[in-house]
Design a protein that fits this description.
The protein is an alpha/beta fold. Helices cover about 35% and strands about 25% of the residues. The strands form three sheets. An eight-stranded mixed β-sheet has the order 4-1-9-10-11-12-13-14, with helices on both faces. Strands 3-2-7-8 form a four-stranded mixed β-sheet. α1 packs across α7 and α8 packs across α9. The protein is globular and about 50 Å long. The protein starts with a strand and ends in a 6-residue tail after the last helix.
Length: about 300
C-alpha cells in the first residue's frame, strides 16, 4: 500500500432526526418521541468511523457557505477528519435530510441532494499522495468518477458505496471501482428483484472485481473470485441503524488499507456497524478499535 490515509468522497448532510413509535404509513399523523439535529452523509460518516478506529481519513466534499456547513466541518475536524479537500460553495446550501427512527432502530430518510452543484471541478487537484485506499459514494457521481479514476491510475484500491444514484451513473462508477458494495435497496434499484446471489452474479458478469450486498441483521453477502461468501451480522440491541451502512463501508476500506482480505475486512465492518447500531448517537456513537476487537473475539452473530 502507498499509505494509511483513506480518502472519502461524497456527501455531508445535516440530519433532522425524529424518533417515533413506529414508522408512519401514508395519510396518517405521527407524534414525535424525541428530536435531535446532527450530521451524516455516507462519505463524511465513513471518514469519522475510520478515525475512531485508529485510521486516517480525509473527506473530499462540498458544503454551502452557511451555518450548517461551518458546523459540519467543525465537527468533522473534531473527530480527526482532514477537511482540507472540502469546497465551500457560495451558491446553494448544505445538504439536508429528515430521518425517522422507530423503537426498533429502523429508519426512513428523506434527503435533499440537489441543493448544491454536482460540478466535480471543485475537488482538490492532483493525485492521491499518501493514500492507501479510496472510498466513494454514489450521491455525487461526477466526483466519484474523478477520484475512482485517480485511484486506478495510482494503483490503490477503491471501494464504491452503491446506495442511491441512477442506474446509468452507477453502471459508469461500477466499471471504475475495485470493490462494489451495495445496500439491499441499492442492489434492487440497480439489478432488479430476485435472490441476492443471482443479482450479484448478474452485476459481476464474469468480472474479477469484488461485489457485495449488506442486508442488515441478515449480514452481508460477497462474491469473490466467483465464489459466494456470507458474513453474518453480530447480535446487538439496535437503537438506531442510521449511518450503519456508512460506517460499514468505512471500516471495510480501512481493513483493505491495513492489508486484510475482503472477508476479514467484511467481518471487521460487521462488528463496527453492529456497535454503531447499539450505541446510536450519531457521530458521537462511533466505537473505537478496542470495543470492536472485543466484539470480534466474543460477539454472537445472527445465524445465516
Amino acid at each position: 500500500m502507498s499509505g494509511r490515509l483513506i480518502v472519502c468522497v461524497g456527501n455531508l448532510v445535516q440530519d433532522e432526526v425524529f424518533e417515533v413509535e413506529a414508522l408512519p404509513s401514508a395519510g396518517i399523523k405521527t407524534g414525535v418521541l424525541d428530536y435531535t439535529e446532527r450530521f451524516g452523509g455516507p462519505a463524511a460518516t465513513a471518514a469519522v468511523a475510520i478515525c475512531h478506529l485508529g485510521g486516517e481519513a480525509a473527506y473530499w466534499g462540498r458544503v454551502g457557505a452557511d451555518t450548517a456547513g461551518e458546523t459540519g466541518l467543525r465537527l468533522l475536524r473534531g473527530h480527526g477528519v482532514d477537511c482540507s479537500g472540502v469546497a465551500i460553495l457560495p451558491e446553494g446550501r448544505t445538504l439536508r435530510a429528515i430521518v425517522l427512527v422507530d423503537r426498533r432502530g429502523e429508519r426512513s430518510i428523506v434527503s435533499n441532494r440537489r441543493s448544491l452543484s454536482q460540478d466535480a471541478s471543485v475537488l482538490p487537484p492532483g493525485g492521491l499522495d499518501g493514500a492507501g485506499a479510496v472510498l466513494a459514494d454514489t450521491r455525487w457521481p461526477a466526483a466519484a468518477a474523478v477520484v475512482l479514476d485517480r485511484a486506478h491510475a495510482a494503483g490503490i484500491p477503491s471501494v464504491l458505496d452503491v446506495d442511491g444514484g441512477t442506474p446509468e451513473d452507477n453502471r459508469h462508477l461500477i466499471a471504475k471501482a475495485d470493490h462494489i458494495v451495495f445496500s439491499a435497496e441499492g442492489l434492487r434499484d440497480y439489478a432488479g428483484d430476485g435472490p441476492a446471489e443471482a443479482l450479484l452474479r448478474r452485476c459481476a458478469d464474469g468480472s474479477d472485481k469484488v461485489f457485495a450486498v449488506t442486508r442488515g441483521s441478515a449480514g452481508s453477502l460477497w462474491l469473490i473470485d466467483g465464489e459466494l461468501v456470507s458474513v453474518p451480522a453480530f447480535k446487538v440491541a439496535a437503537k438506531d441503524t442510521t449511518g450503519c451502512g456508512d460506517v460499514f463501508h468505512g471500516a471495510y476500506a480501512l481493513g483493505l488499507c491495513e492489508g486484510q482480505s475482503p472477508v476479514e475486512a467484511a467481518r471487521l465492518a460487521a462488528a463496527v456497524a453492529a456497535l454503531k447500531a447499539e450505541r446510536a448517537n450519531g457521530w458521537d456513537g462511533m466505537p473505537d478499535r478496542a470495543a470492536v476487537q472485543a466484539l470480534l473475539a466474543t460477539g454472537e452473530t445472527h445465524p445465516n
